[in-house]
Amino acid sequence: MIGLGLDGYDPDSQHDAAVAFRIRVVAEEQHIPQHQHRKGQLILALGGAITCEVENAMLMVPPQYAVWIPGQVPHSNKATPSAQLCFLFIEPGAVSLPDRCCTLKISPLVRELILSLASRTREELQLPATSRLVDVLFDELLQQPQEHLQLPVSPHPKIRFMSERMAEEPAEWQTLAQWAHHFAMSERNLARLVVKETGLSFRRWRHQLQLIVALQLLISGRSVQQAAQSLGYDSTTAFITMFRKGLGQTPARYVAGLSRTSQ
């Protein structure tokens, strides 16, 4: 299956420079297993959130952000319940977007251009007006800033196991010492492994994962206090400090901003 709610649509069956679909996720389609396609794919979250996993990273975006996945990159998608998404498939070579997966902050103009494209019929896609719209969209896409809403992971079994377990039970797995004991390794050797495989220290890597999980919890309706407790923070203030350091705002202000821009 290629995409959520696309009824078996194969994006590689057409050679349009760009084609878009607006999607509302239903319960049985929250998770799409690993797949790939020739076209590049931009997944824009309109409401709710989506997490994409690729070989060396987990990328999560809240509303008004997007994940960019270049063509031929294997990936899987997981959306929050009732998420509203927009899929933009781009023909290889049509626009010079990054050659690696990344997260982008999407401007209101780009959002509306993508939604306009998604509303067009197959016949309308062939019109000169649509070509002009796509040209403007491509020009604007190149200006969208990259954000750091991704967690470096790797195929290494220990790193993969750690990322999955910490995402599922963040309050239970807090320290390097816990993991070193679990793997029967010294803390120093495990710390070196994390740096080698992810490029980050264990502390920074854990904080980045916590940030992604925190966003998922907050967007799903959890309070700041509940999110802090779920992540194992004894102090809500410490959680807010971690969040603000990662995203530049307090959790309450950040989520309030997402609610305003998604309306």
UniProtKB/TrEMBL annotation:
<dbReference type="Pfam" id="PF12833">
    <property type="entry name" value="HTH_18"/>
</dbReference>
<dbReference type="InterPro" id="IPR018062">
    <property type="entry name" value="HTH_AraC-typ_CS"/>
</dbReference>
<protein>
    <submittedName>
        <fullName>Helix-turn-helix transcriptional regulator</fullName>
    </submittedName>
</protein>
<keyword id="KW-0238">DNA-binding</keyword>
<dbReference type="GO" id="GO:0043565">
    <property type="term" value="F:sequence-specific DNA binding"/>
</dbReference>
<keyword id="KW-0678">Repressor</keyword>
<keyword id="KW-0805">Transcription regulation</keyword>
<keyword id="KW-0804">Transcription</keyword>
<dbReference type="GO" id="GO:0003700">
    <property type="term" value="F:DNA-binding transcription factor activity"/>
</dbReference>
<dbReference type="InterPro" id="IPR018060">
    <property type="entry name" value="HTH_AraC"/>
</dbReference>
<feature type="domain" description="HTH araC/xylS-type">
    <location>
        <begin position="156"/>
        <end position="257"/>
    </location>
</feature>
